[in-house]
Amino acid sequence: MFTAIWxxxxxxxxxxxxxxxxxxxxxxxxxxxxxxxxxxxxQTQCGQCGFPGCRPYxxxxxxxxxxxxxxxxxxxxxxxxxxxxxxxxxKPLDEAHGTPKPKSxxxxxxxxxxxxxxxxxxxxxxxxxxxxxxxxTIIADECTGCELCLAPCPVDCxxxxxxxxDLPHWKWKHPVVMMKQVGESTRV
Length: 188
Description:
The chain is mostly helical. Helix content is about 30%, strand content about 5%. Among the domains are: about 30-95, 3-methyladenine DNA Glycosylase II, Chain A, domain 3, CATH 1.10.15.40; about 100-165, Alpha-Beta Plaits, CATH 3.30.70.20. The protein is built from five helices and four strands. A two-stranded antiparallel sheet has the order 1-4. Part of a membrane-bound complex that couples electron transfer with translocation of ions across the membrane. The complex is composed of six subunits: RnfA, RnfB, RnfC, RnfD, RnfE and RnfG. Belongs to the 4Fe4S bacterial-type ferredoxin family. RnfB subfamily.
């Protein structure tokens, strides 16, 4: 009986070691350029670029299958950052994919909401809370302002409310110039 247990323990250890070695040996690395591009994109998952989310768009840019100017939520600033990262000239935002809008969040008029759950199904970031035939509400901190919840609503109880520019949402609008650290040598 103990022999069978020791055989099973030995097999488990051997298989574990083989699996561990295989995981290290055959590890698939993601595209590091796509990772950097994805970090620049606004993560609204809105699909305005023609891709189902920011990650697929980043991968398409990295492969050269998409242009850098297809993201309206990222605006001109996003295009400039992508151009700088990729070492290409910035392009004007492609208006075929939409125009930049002020940052906003969805708001559900809970008196009008019929609880159909269509908005919940449409939200790519799960920023809508509610149940069938119950009123729904937006989790404002999670909402990216993608507007994907507007179209499926049969009673038009969802509206977009611009985010006020207060301290947590304020952003420096002027270009930031990187300063050299004291003592850093300059190249000639």
